[in-house]
Structure formats: C-alpha cells, structure tokens
Amino acid sequence: MAETTRDISIQTRAVGDAAIIYASDYLNKLTGERIERECRRQFDSGRRTLIINFRDTELVNSIGVSILVGLIDAAEQNTARLIFSDVNSNTANLFEMLGLTRHVSVAANEAEALSWITEGDSSASAVSEARP
Amino acid sequence: MTGKLVSIGNPALPHGRASETNYMETNTQRLIHAFSALADLGQEIADAGDFEDMLRNSFHLLLGSLAIRRGGVAEYDREADQLRLVAARGLGEPATDTLPLSTEHAQHLSTLGSPMSLADATGEAGRFLEDHKQVFAAVEIDLVLPLVVREELIGVVLLGEKASGEKFTDDDLEVLSALSRHIGVGIHSHRLIEDVEQKAAENLRLYDGLRAIYKETVRAFAAAIDIKDRYTQGHSVRVGKYSEVIAREMGWADEEVEGITIAGYLHDIGKLIVDLSVINSPDRFNAKDSAEMSRHPAAGYEILAPISHPYADIPLMARYHHERMDGNGYPDGLKGDQIPPGAKIVTLADSFDAMTTDRPYRKKLPLEDVLEDFRANTGTQFDPEVVCAFCRAFLNEIEGKKERRLLNLLNRNYSNIEELSPLLNQMLSEFNGGTMTASANN
C-alpha cells in the first residue's frame, strides 16, 4: 500500500519497506537540505531503502552534489540502500562524471527502482536509462 | 596569493578518436560544473550575512565541485599557534577541532600556498604533513590546501578522497585552488571587518571614557568657579541640571542635552577674571561693580573658545546667557532668534537658580514670585518656548508624571509646591504652550 505525504515542498511516498522522496526542480542548498532532512528522518525511523526520484529536477548545483555525497555516506553508515531514479541525461552525466554512480544505483524510473528492491537486484549499480 | 601546484600525476589520456571526444566532453562538463561552483561561491561570499553560514556553504560548494567525500576548513589562529576547524563534512567526530601549528610551519605553508598531497609532498610542506600524519590519517585526509592571502596564512582546507575514487588531477587542483582562494579571501575579509569593528568599539569605549573625564573635569571646574563666589556655591552645577531638564523637555537629542548641561556648568567661567571683591560684595552692585560683573559672559567666551569641546556652541552659550529677547541684554545686545537656543535655556536656568537661592542682599524668592517674574518677562527677557518647556517639566514633576529633578534641586525649604499647578497651567495657556510670538520678533 502506498502512502503519500508532503512536507513543505518535499513529497514522499512509502511503498512497502521503501520510501520514495521526490526532489524539486533545482537541487541547491535549500532544497537539498530538505531532502537530506527527510532522508535522515527515514533512516532514523528504521527505513533501509530510499529512492530519490529526480523526475522534476532540471539542475543540481555543487551544494546539491555535496549533500547527495553526504547522503551516500549516511546510507553506508546506516547499511541502507539508496537508489536514484528518473535522472535526466545531464544530471546523469554529472553523477557519472563525479563518481556518484559508484556508490548509488540509478534506475531509469520508479518502477525499475521498485522492481530492483522486490527482486533484490544487487547488480543494478549503473545508469540504466537516463531521461532525454 | 601564490598559485603553484604540487603535481600529483595526471590520468593518461584515452586512446582513439571516440574515446578522446568522450574525454573532451566529460572534461568540458567538469569545467562547466566547476565554473558554476565558482560562480555560486562568489555569490555566496558576496551575499554573506552570517560568516559561519558563508563558510559552511562555501565549503560545501567546494566539496560538491568534485564530489569530495569528506573534509574541513580550519582557520589559523596566529596568537594561539593553532588551526581550528570551522567547517567540516564527513569527518565524523574528530578527536579535536584544533591542531597545533608552529609559527615556523605557518610561515612555510604561507610561502608554499599550494595544495599538498599527503602522499607526495616534500620539503617543509612534507615536514608539516609528517608531523600531523596521524591526525590526518585518522580523519582520512588526502590533500591539504593552505589558504594564503597577501602572504599571510589564513587557514587550510583539508580534503579526503573523491567519490569517483580517482586521484586528484592537476585540473582538479586548479579548480580547488581557485575555490579555496575565494574562501581564503572570505575569511580574510571577515577578519578585517572584525578588526575594524573591534577597533571601532575600542575607540567608542575610549571616547566614552574621555567624555566621562571631560564631564568630570567640567564639573570640577564648575565647582571651582562657584567656590570663588561664596554666595552662589553649587550655582553652576544646578544651572547645568536645570538646563538639562528644560532641553530634554524641549525634545533635544541626548547629545545636545549633554552639551547644554556642560554649557550650564561653564556659563559663569568668565567670573574667574572678575574682581573677587565685586563677586563677594554683600551689597547690591553699584554701576561700577555692574560694569565689572558684566564682563564675565564675554570673558567666558574668550576662555572657552580656544578649547575643542565635544559639543557644539558651548562658548556661545556662555557668551549669550545674559542676552534678552528684546535686545536689551549684554554683551552684544542680540534679540530674538539671533540668540542661540541653548543660550536662551541657560538664561532661564540661571535666573531660576538666582531667584531660588539666598543672596547677600536678599533672601530667596517665593516660587510663586519666581514664576510671576517669568510670566512678566516672557517675550522680553525669556523665550516663550523655553518658559513653557520649563513650566511643563515643573508641572509634570508636581503631578508625579516625571522623575523629580527640578524639585529635588530646589531648596527643600520650599513647601506646598503642588499649589503652583494652577499658575503653571495658566502660564502654559497664556503662552500657547510656547507658540506665542516673542515681542522682540514682531
């Protein structure tokens, strides 16, 4: 059963044991910190699989990248799994170039991300298909 | 700031046209991302409201420019000979947020001014890294960038590995150097502002101290003036305080009120040159004595004019405190608005104290008579606005609406002061609260 909540501009959806967090159109300090807070809240509440959906995200700036790197660390410390989904091609290239994709699975879309969770697919660690 | 770099190796260029194109595209994108970080950093520093925030955000921008996993910014405290961690990410809980840094090491770092890899640094930089190797290893730091502005060590940026796991390239070091330079300049500017603020606060304290000394000196002077006249002891200080009450009632600013208080203290300083036998004469002045006595306002001006007072017009207030609205005063026979407002206040305060204290040739006057004197001479001797301010202040104190300043200064022998309220109200009504036009101005 899916349950959707919205905290200011962060929309979150719980699907089974996972939570999907929707990033906004521009991932900067302000919006990045909201995502960070939400992810940490989810980790603290015991959630061990998080999907960050970038379907609305056009741009990620350096602070946004830094916050995502921090979340990767937090996920590792919590032995949690972090999946990015619906990443546009520019952002996907940026993540690839900066090496974020070495630490996080990137799914083409939410359905694929959810299927990885269901199937326990551990091989999905590269960009499957980026949005044009 | 120096810009030389410690080379720590470059990844080999890929072979083949397609790979080369791909490499160029990636490199271009990397540069665009770095430039964007640099632009954001410039904005961050320019917009900085809170220094700590600016530092944290700038450091995150630097980390994000190359997706560096951990690091910190440490500010150099020259007086404490240490580096103090002021922003950090991913370092966990370091055992300490300070790191000792000798003056010698600081000098070497400021001379080098370039990124140092923990693995590759040599010479003096290597000595510094070697000395702190255990500390850096504990927090997994690979790279140290000294922040140097105008050959002065401001601090260091400590960086761990990139998320890509790749070694830092020369291009990376160029990007990090540029970003660090901005952070260094931001810290340096903040320090300069702090220094200026500290010096301004210190100057303000000194100024306040000097002002207090000046006021005390003036009060001592006022006492000295009054000692010369055995019949008017405490007169100058009281005139200063009456003037203060009136000026405050007239809505003068604090600085101006302080000024008029000082003017009250010093208004009779010219009496220092008046013959002692005249000042202390037990009789009413004859024509000769009056002429001698009337020298004191101009003499007071001559004494006070060469002094740089922290308040405006003090010498003029001394010179003109015996001028009258109708032009029949002395020394210059000024009338109406030619008389400075402060001098008009001191005139009333001076007359009030003269009439409410015993003189050798008469006892103090009843307060009702004093007020009737003011009433009769408003517009000719006294300014209506000043008289009304005095009446309002007096009335407010009688009615308990304001602190008892005038009443406390008056000789305690006065009783039934509250009975003056109707007369005070009547005077206020007659002079339209101070808007009555002085006859001298007509």
Question: Oligomerization state of this entry?
Answer: heterodimer
Radius of gyration of chain A: 13 Å
The largest chain-to-chain contact, stated as pair and per-chain residue counts, equals: A-B, 20 and 26 residues
Given helix and strand content, the structural type of chain A is alpha/beta
Characterization of this structure:
The complex is a heterodimer of chains A (132) and B (442). Chain A has 132 residues and is of the alpha/beta class. Chain A has helices at 29-44, 62-77, 89-98, 110-119, and strands at residues 2-7, 10-15, 18-22, 26-27, 49-53, 59-60, 81-85, 105-107. In chain A, helix 1 (29-44) packs parallel to helix 2 (62-77). Chain B is of the alpha+beta class and 442 residues long. Chain B has 17 helices and six strands. The interface between A and B is medium-sized, with 20 and 26 residues.
List the helices and strands and how they pair.
The complex is a heterodimer of chains A (132) and B (442).
Chain A: E1 2-7, E2 10-15, E3 18-22, E4 26-27, H1 29-44, E5 49-53, E6 59-60, H2 62-77, E7 81-85, H3 89-98, E8 105-107, H4 110-119
Chain B: H1 17-47, H2 51-65, E1 71-77, E2 82-89, E3 98-100, H3 103-112, E4 116-117, H4 123-131, H5 133-138, E5 143-149, E6 152-159, H6 170-228, H7 235-249, H8 254-266, H9 276-279, H10 287-293, H11 296-304, H12 314-319, H13 341-355, H14 367-377, H15 384-398, H16 406-409, H17 421-430
Antiparallel strand pairs in B: 1-2, 1-6, 2-3, 4-5, 5-6
Helix pairs in contact in B: 1-2, 1-6, 2-6, 3-4, 7-8, 7-13, 7-15, 15-17
